[in-house]
């Protein structure tokens, strides 16, 4: 087997810890690229996406903290509309700072608990 990259090792470690602590809660998964940031709430028990938001459809660039905060507000509104109040935050292999932290803080302000 090929060695895993540091990012992939960190991603697997985070996901494994989340599964141990999730207790059946849906997970707020975050993915970021150089141009955009994506967030989705996934119900792993049913294997479906409950809500999703990204900077793809927005006019502003996704490569800044303000756009990430807007995605956090959007995902929180979509989650509350879908009836989800409590989630576990899955940052993937990304460190919790910058755009990922801005998205998480905005989602908390929008009504999600994690």
Automatic annotation (TrEMBL):
This protein's record includes keyword Ribosomal protein: yes
Family annotation (InterPro entries): Ribosomal_L18 (IPR057268), Ribosomal_uL18_bac-type (IPR004389), Ribosomal_uL18_bac/plant/anim (IPR005484)
GO cellular component: ribosome
Coiled-coil blocks: none
Short name of one Pfam family: Ribosomal_L18p
The keyword Metal-binding is annotated on this UniProt entry: no
Alphabetic keyword roster: Ribonucleoprotein, Ribosomal protein, RNA-binding, rRNA-binding
Subunit (UniProt): Part of the 50S ribosomal subunit; part of the 5S rRNA/L5/L18/L25 subcomplex. Contacts the 5S and 23S rRNAs.
PANTHER family noted in UniProt: 39S RIBOSOMAL PROTEIN L18, MITOCHONDRIAL, LARGE RIBOSOMAL SUBUNIT PROTEIN UL18M
Function: This is one of the proteins that bind and probably mediate the attachment of the 5S RNA into the large ribosomal subunit, where it forms part of the central protuberance.
Family membership: Belongs to the universal ribosomal protein uL18 family.
Protein's name in the database: Large ribosomal subunit protein uL18
Species this protein is from: Alteraurantiacibacter lauratis
């Amino acid at each position: 087997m090929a060695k895993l990259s540091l990012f992939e090792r960190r991603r697997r470690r985070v996901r494994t810890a989340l599964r141990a602590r999730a207790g059946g809660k849906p997970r707020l998964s975050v993915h970021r690229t150089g141009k955009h940031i994506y967030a989705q709430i996934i119900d792993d028990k049913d294997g479906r996406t409950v809500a999703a938001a990204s900077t793809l459809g927005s006019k502003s660039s996704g490569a800044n903290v303000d756009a990430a905060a807007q995605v956090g507000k959007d995902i929180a509104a979509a989650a509350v509309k879908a009836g989800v109040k409590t989630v576990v935050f899955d940052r993937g292999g990304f460190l919790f700072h910058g755009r990922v932290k801005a998205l998480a803080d905005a989602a908390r302000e929008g009504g999600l608990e994690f």
